[in-house]
Design a protein that fits this description.
The protein contains 8 helices and 5 strands.
Length: 249
């Protein structure tokens, strides 16, 4: 092949390459983008600011058996915010989205009658083969997501503890093995529950101090933060099964 022919061929390939690159760029830009709010939220923001000023004080209907503090459950939150939201043309939806992989997402969307919206998404840690346990986890996630998107909190919310729970593991490690508890023998190298797992177990064990005591005794631990991470699913499934059996008796 003569040199001029090679140059023509290379030029042709270059033109085709540039054309393909341009078409790919256009296609990517035209793809719908995942968003968590409408293009404008000015009307929603104004309405929400008024609604927040009308929220009544939350009625704390439950008691956390560990911190001895009261908190508002999902029903109490909805009862408190429903009228202020409706009066300002706002509504909230929480949709359960189950992926093909089995992952569960809670889509919490705050809507204005203009069509404007904001949305948050939270992943639910489900317990395989235990629908009752999964329902409980979903309720916990819905409660947290709802309070977050509405900008509402209970004055006695047990999870708002100035970081005490986050520091609990370090505090316990410091105190154990000292004169306060000289017989304690920690299991070195054992990965323990995450903060989210502790919070979920804490939620499940509210009003069930006897179940909590039994778990501590059988696992030979002194707090939720001592439970090995690989035992989380077994422990929470056990708690939920016991609660289910009690509710049916």
């Amino acid at each position: 092949m003569e040199t001029p022919d090679v140059n023509i061929l290379l030029s042709f390939y270059g033109s085709i390459r540039d054309l393909i690159a341009k078409e790919v760029e256009i296609a990517l830009k035209s793809q719908p983008r995942e968003t968590f709010q409408s293009p404008s939220i000015d009307l929603l923001a104004e309405a929400l600011s008024v609604a927040q000023g009308d929220y009544p004080e939350l009625v704390c209907s439950k008691v956390n058996v560990f911190t001895k503090t009261e908190y508002a459950d999902l029903a109490a939150i909805l009862k408190a915010v429903r009228k202020p939201l409706a009066d300002n043309h706002l509504s909230v939806t929480q949709i359960i989205d189950v992926k093909e992989t089995g992952e569960i997402m809670i889509h919490t969307k705050l809507l204005h009658n203009s069509g404007q919206y904001i949305e948050s998404r939270a992943r639910v840690i489900a317990i395989a083969g235990d629908q009752k346990a999964t329902d409980s986890a979903i309720t916990f996630a819905k409660r947290q997501a709802l309070m977050s998107i509405l900008g509402i909190a209970s004055a006695q919310d047990y999870s708002d503890d100035d970081g005490v729970s986050a520091m609990e593991k370090g505090r316990i490690t410091f105190e154990k093995g000292t004169a306060l508890n000289k017989d304690y023998k920690p299991q070195d190298g054992i990965e323990t529950l995450s903060k989210d797992q502790i919070a979920e177990l804490d939620y499940e064990l509210q009003d069930y101090p006897d179940i909590c005591k039994d778990i501590f005794s059988s696992l030979r631990v002194e707090s939720l933060s001592d439970i090995p991470k690989d035992m989380y699913r077994d422990v929470i499934s056990r708690v939920r099964r016991i609660k289910l059996l009690r509710s049916q008796s």
